[in-house]
Amino acid sequence: MRYNATIYGLTTKEAKERIDEYGKNTIEKRPAISPLRLFLSQFTDIITLILIIATVLSFFMRETADAITILIIIIMNGVLGFIQEYRTEKSLEALKKLASPTAKIYRDGSVKVINAEDVTVGDIMVLETGDRVPADAKLIEEVGIIADESLLTGESVGVEKDLGKNNKIFMGTIITSGRGCAEVTSVGMGTEMGKIAHLIQNVEEEKSPIKVRLDHLGKILVALCIGVCLVVTITGVLRGQNIYEMFLLGVSLAVAAIPEGLPAIVTVSLALGVSRMLKRNALIRKLPAVETLGCTSIICSDKTGTLTENKMRAKVIYYNRKIYDLEKEAPPQNQYLKNIFTYCQNLNIDHDIPELSNSLSGDSTEKALVNIYINKTSDLLDYLNNAARLKEIPFNSKRKMMSVIISHNNKKYMYLKGAPEKVIEKCNFIFENGEPRLFTDTLKVEVLKTIESLSYKALRCIAGAYKEVFGSVDSATENNFVFAGLSGIMDPPRKEVKDAILRCKEAGITPVMITGDHKNTAFAIARELSIVKEEKEVLTGEDLEKINDDDMIERIKDIKVFARVTPEHKLKIVKSFKKLNNVVAMTGDGVNDAPALKESDIGIAMGISGTDVTKEVASMILLDDNYKSIVSAVEEGRVIYNNIRKFIRYLLSCNLGEVLTMFLASILNLDIPLLSIQILLVNLATDGLPALALGVDNYHGDVMKEKPRTKNESIFAHKLSEKIILRGCLIGACTVLSFIAANFYGFSIEKARTIALSTLIISQLIHVFECRSEEKSIFEISPFGNVRLILAVLTSLILLICVIYIPFLQGIFKTEAININQWFIIIFFSGVIAILNSLFILFRNKR
User: Fold this and answer.
1) What is the mean pLDDT of residues 188-194?
2) What is the DSSP letter of 350?
3) How far does Cα 730 stand from its chain's mean position?
């Protein structure tokens, strides 16, 4: 929106007073789950409730010490689960605040961008195409505003607005076309949106596909574990064991063996990963995007601001059939060119900043054009205030130009600015040697050849034209213009992008550039960035129009650059790439980009230049509009996915080992190797902290040298399920063998169980280090690469030692102190398999 010097807006003091009076501009939401409810929810699954009931019953059977200890362990497990989920909730809340909408308003005479919740009654809002209206208001200035009010009315057809009866705009609606200013009349619950707030509060949050699949897997594992627990319980009863003790044992085994925390740890891992991505300027709006990022095979990116610096600077001017190099000489002194570049723009101006290059905000191309002739903020304000804008025909992606009618010096002029080929179509004359002359076909070809040569130098050309308006403003049309000249603008590629593109290619990801620029400009930039090598890899929007959908799929395989495209073309491009079984990431900033972003697997909105609409449909927002941040997010997504595989491998193999320990002992007619209280101790010592630490592990190697996985690839792909089953069987077998060995040496049943307990826990703690890599042995990975994991393992070991050697705890957990020789039995059975397996991997890798 062009800065309007006649609008001052509220002062900061007035705004604060009105916020105190009318409240924040927020819609009341369902109250968040309280910490107490979140804590109590840790004990609501059916198996834990049965264990709690069984433990309470043991009070009446005078097993007080056991009952208290089991309840303490259950509570400690609940506390760990609560801490995980509470941290996750807080992290996600913080991320939602970062993604909260903003509003452009006049404060203290300047246009400011503030949080939408700080908009108050009386504020003057600046509205542009793609904005979501932050509060109810009435228009005081508008140019062709059309609003999508389907959120309120259900009608999908846009509503035209004016300064008469249709001057009201409403919170939550979208400006689909035009621009204007509006004075806020209602905020928060006083708006039309606030009145229907109760209808929009029960929206379900989207679950990650991994979490959905693990929820389903969890139900299967629950059934299997309960079956095994019933076998263990019934077998014990048939062998004459106490029915109540066997029931308590069976329920305890179910609590320890069922990986009920798996989906929660997935969420924690995703949330922590999202926080890491935020540090790399990628704000994830939807958790499933983290998983999908690792599958990305094509990144379709806009050129301006993403691949380039978005620091546009006019390098040349073509005027009077001559090229002026602005690096070496002053711009030609032509009033018409100056007026076109100065009046034909919609920039915001901060009048408190004297340097014009710093005071302007808005379109970078318009900033570059204004800066050709004017360098001070005060000079621009004076220039604008000496004229009046009577009418505007706004720019859009189809027209590729805009025009304004300006009144100054008692005359009316229409100024036109846009893509050269579109402007030339509207011109019958050319300004040459101080006067207009006929714009012949020969001269048009000459100008087009000049544009062609400039575009090969990666210059983006913007042409200008003018005409005097004699009749009424409303009857003025865009034709019969005088061609004034054009400017060649340079937007240099970001220095870091070339390396990011090379990393993409190493990772099996195809970088694709999409731009509205001329074919030659696009090719020059793309070749410099190593996206393309030959011109045949470039396709224009005009070419796209001629290709049918079937031919498009075949043709698109070799195309890396799309030039002079519209948002509608973007949608066609995304659909074609997806039909080739690609996982497509697509960037966008304008309101018309929303369909393409929605169609893509990962829609990426620009945080700086993006409209509210694109940000809302996007899965991810680039806070710095930088291509490198997309690549960093893909890398982080791959690491997160690998970490999820790590703790799934660890948790499921350990839980399988616990179940098999009890099952094998039952079918081999052995004494019970672990008591219920010892099984719960294993669950406390090995399940929570080590698994969480794996969720934030570093990747061992370069994850960006691997090919992207397919979208529907199972989490258990690449023989992960075989590794889980094999290692789980070995943990269970080694634990039972250590129990048999202890019996063989004639140790007491308490000591034998202590050895089995220690073997089971240490086996799992050794296995957690194996799970850090699927390709490398524990001898090839630095043990100090994950400090959290070391601390988690040390905590578990200290807990085990306390249980074995502290007399008070010995009585509770039915353990006995073990000597150095007995430790050798534990170390042998818990470590031998891991050492042999790691040696095998080490020699295989070396070979």
Assistant:
1) 85
2) -
3) 40
Locate tokens 């710095």: which residue?
A: 624
Q: To which residue do tokens 């306390």 refer?
A: 802
The alpha helices in 280-334, defined as continuous H runs, are 288-293
Q: Are strands 602-606 and 584-588 parallel, antiparallel or unpaired?
A: parallel
Chain centroid to CA 459: how far? 33
pLDDT tens sequence across 792-834: 999 999 999 999 999 999 988 899 999 999 999 999 999 887 8
The pLDDT tens digits for 73-102 are 678 777 767 776 776 677 666 656 665 688
Coil/strand/helix, residue 586: strand
Residue type, 757: L
Where in the sequence numbering do the catalytic residues fall?
A: 302
* Separation of alpha carbons 686 and 761, rounded Å: 7
Tell me if 429 sits within 8 A of 465, measured CB to CB: no
* Pairwise CA distance, residues 142 & 119, whole Å: 20
Contacts of 540 (CB under 8 A, 6+ apart): 519, 562, 563, 564, 565
Tokens, residue 15: 């705004």
Could you tell me the pTM of the whole model? Answer: 0.78
Give the helix ranges, DSSP H, for 580-626.
594-599, 612-617
Give the integer Cα–Cα distance in Å for 264 and 257.
16
Query: How many Å apart are CA 796 and CA 15, to the nearest integer?
Result: 55
Helices (H), 695-786: 720-744, 749-770
Q: Write phi, then psi, for 392 (nearest 5 degrees).
A: -140, 135
Give just the sign of the alpha carbon dihedral 648, 650, 652, 655.
Answer: negative
Please tell me the distance from the alpha carbon of residue 360 to that of residue 609, in angstroms, as a whole number. Answer: 14
Q: What is the pLDDT of residue 126?
A: 92
